[in-house]
C-alpha cells in the first residue's frame, strides 16, 4: 500500500490517499476547502490513474471534513465514519462560518458505518478499524498489518497527543486508547497523523512526554 499525504487548509491538516497496485484508492480525511486545494487533490488522482472507491473519516472535526462533499460528489462515493461521531460531524455546519469557512458544504454519511472488528478493504489491501476515542467521541484509526502502517488521525502525534479540550474530548479516554490500541502494535509500525510528520510506535513509547 502506498501512502500519499497532501496538506490542506489553514489547520495544515494531512489528507491521505491510500492505493495499491490495482489503482483502487481510498481517501482519508479530505481537508481540501478551496478550489485550488480541490484541484491539487483531483490532479494527483488523475496523474496517477487512481480510482477512488471509498471515503473515510478518522473523526469529524472541521479540519478533517472540509473536502468530504467535494470527494463524494466528484467520485460518487459515500462518506464512512464511526456512528458515534455523527453529532461531531453535524455540529460543523453550525460553527464553520465562525472558523472562517462560510462555504462549507455538509456531507452526511451513508448507511455503512465504520465499526471496530470490521475491516476496510480495497484492491488487494485490508485495513483494520481500531476504535480510539478521546480526541473525538467516534475517533477511529486504520491499521495495515501487512505494511505496518497506521493512519492515525489526531490521536498520536510525533512527541505529542491529540487535544482533549474540544466538545466530546476526554484526556483519560485518549490515554487509554493510545495504550490499549496503538501501543499494542509492533514498535516498527509507522503512524501517519492528522497533522505534522509521521512517527513510529517505538519512538513514541520511548520519548513521548505525555505518555511516559
From TrEMBL:
Question: What cofactors does this protein use?
Answer: Zn(2+)
Q: Where on the tree of life does the source sit, at the highest rank? A: Bacteria
Read off the InterPro entries from this record: MBL_Glyoxalase_II, Metallo-B-lactamas, RibonucZ/Hydroxyglut_hydro
Gene3D superfamilies linked to this entry: Ribonuclease Z/Hydroxyacylglutathione hydrolase-like
Asked if the Swiss-Prot or TrEMBL record annotates the protein with the keyword Ion transport, the reply is no
Alphabetically, the GO molecular function entries are: hydrolase activity; metal ion binding
Q: Which CDD domains does the protein's record reference?
A: metallo-hydrolase-like_MBL-fold
Asked whether the UniProt record includes Repressor among its keywords, one would answer no
Which segments constitute the Metallo-beta-lactamase domain? Answer: 12-195
Stored SUPFAM superfamilies: Metallo-hydrolase/oxidoreductase
Q: Which residues form a coiled coil?
A: none
Q: Which UniProt keywords apply?
A: Hydrolase, Metal-binding, Zinc
PANTHER family for this protein: HYDROXYACYLGLUTATHIONE HYDROLASE GLOC (PTHR46233:SF3)
The name this protein goes by in its record: MBL fold metallo-hydrolase
